[in-house]
Amino acid sequence: MTPPDDHPLSRRAVLGTAAGGLALALAPAVAHAAGHAGPWRLRERLSWPEFLKGQDLIWGRMPKAWHEGPFLGDGLLGSMVYQEPNQNKIRFTVQHGRVQDHRPQFGSGWGTCRLPVGHLTLDPVGTITAVDWRLSLYDAEVTGTITTDQGELAFTAFVHDEILVVKAGASGGEQVRWTFHPEEAVSPRSSTEAPPSGYTPNPPWTTATADGIEQVIQPLTGGGQTATAYRVEDGTLLVAVAHSFPSADAQETALGKIRDARPYGVMRKRHRDWWHDFYGKSFVSLPDQRLQSFYWIQLYKIASASRAGGPVVATTGPWLEPTPWPAVWWNLNVQLEYWLINGSNHLELDSLTSTLHQNREQLVRNVPEAYRADSAGVGRSSDMFCTRSVGRPGTGAEVGDLTWALHNTWLSYRHTMDDKLLRDTVFPLLRRAINYYLHFLTPGGDGKLHLPSTLSPEYPVTPPQDTNYDLALIRWGCRTLLDSASRLRIDDPLRAKWQEVLDKLADYPVDANGFMIGANTPYAQSHRHYSHLLMVYPLYLVNWDQPENRELIEKSVVHWQSLTSAHRGYSYTGASSLYAMMGRGDTALSYLERFFDPASRFPCRANTHYAEGGPVIETPLSAAQSIHDMLCQSWGGIVRVFPAVPAAWQDVTLHDFRTEGAFLVSAVRQGGRTRFIRVRSLAGEPLRIRHGLDGPLTAVLDNGRPAQVKDLGEGIAEITLGRGREVLLHTGRRPDLVIAPVKIAKPGEPWGLPPVPPPGPTTPVDLSAHFDNDGVSSHEAMTDGNVDGSGYTYPAEELPPAGPLTHEGLSFVFPAYGDGVENNVTGQGQTITVPPGTYAKVRLLGAGTSGSVSAALTAAYADGSTAQVPFVLPDWGGQPGAGTTEVLRCTHRHGQNGAHTLRVGLFETQAALDPAKELRSLTLPALTRPQLHLFALSLEGPR
């Protein structure tokens, strides 16, 4: 076998009868006329190393924050790589998915939250002048160089078997110098809020050395222990983290991991072998380079964050940073995190199902004691052990989160048809989750069963009766229990009750705008969740195959999207999947692209991560599911191939895409037409497929004989296909049966931070005559100034000195600041006269307050013409999107009552000017909230 490093071009053939994955054979394809049976084989023209290299993330400039840098993980230990804030060092974070506090009395935000571990810094001798890094998806490792004015550092980093491995070397006058920085074992929420009453800090860490291995030991007030062990030997750094509870033996576990670690070459080979096998389980290729790369990065991301049997993925993933969300959120986040694993054929990543199964007793303890005999539930957020009580219907509690999470587990069952999973996990837990509802359903005067007040997740009104969120979950749960009991041949005494609920449950509340939040509660204000639409997606109880419901579905989605102020990234990915269900690929793509739009309030970040006040992993993963929904859907007992492909995607390849019913689908689309479909049955379930092929259908089994096909109408065929058998579908003459990457029709830059071409000459513009706000205060006079209307300011001690400032080759003049000195311009419609000249871009240095600023300057030219020049500046506590860079990030801000932990930044953004015209002035937008704060402005000439 050729070593992976050689990266040969592989031309392999895939047997039609091969078992799983991309199994290989050498026979070529044989073409046959339409309608003739005969042997057939798929051929794979795919070099995995070459293909995935084209999807890699690239850094040609320094990442300054977690959402810009490379990231590594093995499902437990995670590391992100970026510049140590405001220092000449490189940070490698060290965090672990099992490390948490154990004091449930303080809630999931503080008492059972994920806890930080620490970070390493690589400390060069000289000043860093350049970086050249690559995150190789195929090898799951970061490689690159750091150039300084003294020499160069080169490194390779990966995470394997809960060990961060970094091999580094130096040349010139440089040296490899590592420092480990333990972090305080306190909730990441401490960056934005005070601890709850009665909360006491965890004890300080201690250090130890054994066998040349350094250790940091962190005891916990609530019991248990976290330990970090690290060693540098022969240029290789090894770092391991262990956590124990209730015992305090993590120290020995971490020490053992380093002491018993295999040689570097052995670890690296085992690490690479796992990842190379991982990618071979399915294949997707799109003609849009940036989206194609994004998709493969999400597969890498979820495999870095989750492995079956490990802890359920927290909302930050294994990459903990200061955040309001240091736990597991069950009312949308968890569900969106795992959808991707089904179609991509990666059920080995399903830690959600294993978490629910392992913590069945805790799920029972979460409901009030009176209901524990037959019920279970989980509150909105919890730790990895599902520790969070759930309230009672009738009190406005959020009740349905366990039922929705069990829909994910049911999807794992449907994609495997593993009856053991259905019998041991899905059925008994779903029975308890629905039982909890049954205790509270009461008949009304209309003869219907009604649910007392419950919360539709995060909709900010008095919780109504009969919320659509819960009615949809109850209906799905009862139907699924009845179907499961029949399949498992369980004569359950509750069967009659489940059927009665289906017969008598209150109708979904609907008004002129579509589905409401609940009874007497319309959808009347912007809502980021689509919890009131669960019956449409992802439950498909009300769906596009029901003509009588199409108008209701469409107006509900249109109305949801018409109120946008509270929308977040997953509001767009959810809309994308909803329109894909309708078969509207172009609309689905347009909503998905809003998530990638740098002008969006909550866009996808440079490394494909995402933030809402802190890292949240679910939205990019759900965007990958939106791509799935355009390419292949399986619900209602029907497999739908290419159901919503955008017109721009003329060529698409799918291979071993897993569907409900446990089928593996391979399909090729060329020139806007489906050329062939191959389906392999893993479980022998009935196959009903909406194939999208035009003309008389040819269906050939893997033995060369015609398949038994029944035309069900509307493009749906029913095909008899036994377990382990395959069928090939096509029309006309048999096409070439080749699985290969498609040609890129829409090129795009790599994700990461590719090198930026040197800017043209920059001319700083003097803003001092327009300064109207004091946004800076000193440590000694924190009450001086007010940048945001609430008395907060930038800390002077962390800002650059007044005068010339260079950022990535651009020249600015940073303003002077002092007590009572105004130092920035707010957006009040002011006109700023500029040095006459022709310019390609305007460069703005500043930030927004009360939100990100998305507005436009008005450029006035010498010929009398004007033009709107749109720009985006992030909120000062936010993160930069595409086209915006972070100039600096302060460790805190000043307030009227002292220092505050919110880390605020200043950003540089650009906007295009007409280089053919002489510019005379720029007029700022007139804003209120959010407000612009402009500290410097420069004009960039043509290169």
Describe this structure in words.
The chain has 943 residues and is an alpha+beta fold. The chain has 4 domains: 4-51 and 648-739, Immunoglobulin-like; 61-279, putative glycoside hydrolase family protein from bacillus halodurans (Beta-galactosidase, Chain A, domain 5); 350-529, Glycosyltransferase, CATH 1.50.10.10; 756-940, no CATH class. Helix content is 21%, strand content 29%. The strands form 13 sheets. A 10-stranded mixed beta sheet has the order 13-14-15-16-11-10-9-8-3-35, covered by helices on one side. A hairpin with a 2-residue loop joins strand 9 (141-148) and strand 10. The radius of gyration is 29 Å and the shape is globular. It starts with 10 loop residues before the first strand and ends with a strand.
Quick overview:
The chain is α+β, with helices and mostly antiparallel strands. Helix 11 (about 420-440) crosses helix 12, helix 12 (about 470-490) runs antiparallel to helix 13 (about 495-505) and helix 16 runs antiparallel to helix 17.
